[in-house]
Amino acid sequence: MEDGDFAAVLGPRRVGKTSVINVFLNEYGSEYKYLYYDLAFGMGREAISYTELTPVSTNISEEELEYSATLNLGLVKMDIKPRGIAEFQNAFLNLLRYLNKEGKKTVIIFDEAQVLPRFAPLNMLGMLQTISDGFENVTVVLSGSMPGLLERIINPTGDRPFFARYVERINIPRWDVKESVEYLKKGLPDSSEEELMEAAKELSNVPGFLAYYGKLRTKGRTHEEALSMTVNYAVKLWKEDLRNFIRIYKSPAYIIALRTIAKGPSYGVATEEIVTEITSTLKISERRAKEVLKNLVDGGFLVKPKRGLYQIPERPLRKAVLEFKAEASWEGYP
Ligand SMILES: Nc1ncnc2c1ncn2[C@@H]1O[C@H](COP(=O)(O)OP(=O)(O)OP(=O)(O)O)[C@@H](O)[C@H]1O
Ligand SMILES: [Mg+2]
Questions:
Q1: Beta strand pairing call for 138-144 and 106-111
Q2: Which atom of ligand 1 is nearest to the CA of 212?
């Protein structure tokens, strides 16, 4: 927060990105004026209206602002309905200009920020650029579970450098088995190491799912019950994520790619094999098929453990992909 105009909190799904931001606001929120936006609602949508861009929380109070800034805050919070994009955009910039001029340290946080470009024609990214260039007391924090997509926003192309040079990156990885077991042990001291190892492995060391499993056990569920309930929960969430992704990307090629990899060995499947599977089922070029793979990596559904190999990073996601077939009902599905 002190160093950069921009900070990005990056990491896979359910690792605790939002928690990091919430802890930050709890611990340090009083030192800053903040506007906190949660854009998760827009993840499965192609277009979103700027009128839906309302902060879920803010500590900027009207009392400390002068009249015109109060008006701007009202427009930014949509308490006062803006008469159009231009009015909203001006209100947003004017509010920040006022806070910046008053020397108030301000932070604007966008959770699931990869959704920001879908507010077009509202040019949010351009506004953030203006803010970072012009307002030295304002920091922008972007967070998101689709690291590659967020990266494209932060640093779109080499010839069009965006705010890349300013971004302070915070990467939150999944835990390793040791961290997972240590975490579970704190709440389940009487559990066998074997059970906790199994939970760590089946839930692929994802903090969110381990927390879910741990909670069920502290409520009296057996290891087997808690684990199967958590796996079901994880598979359900991953299916929703897949559905949201397909709604935006719309090609059966994504399902074919994922399914080919899910059926293969857990260490991964070779690029050629996946591309062949896609191009032999659908009439698309090899180049398009490779783009599909890149989008899946950027969306957080695949990783490349090494060159020429694609892998599904979590066990419940593998399961979700294999079960997804029967549910897909949109046009063009093979
Ligand atoms: N370090 C941690 N220790 C224990 N529980 C944690 C930790 N980090 C996150 N959790 C729990 O994991 C769950 C998911 O966390 P959170 O929502 O912050 O993750 P996220 O990365 O923002 O997920 P999403 O991809 O869904 O946005 C929450 O229930 C949270 O309480
Ligand atoms: Mg989150």
A1: parallel
A2: 29
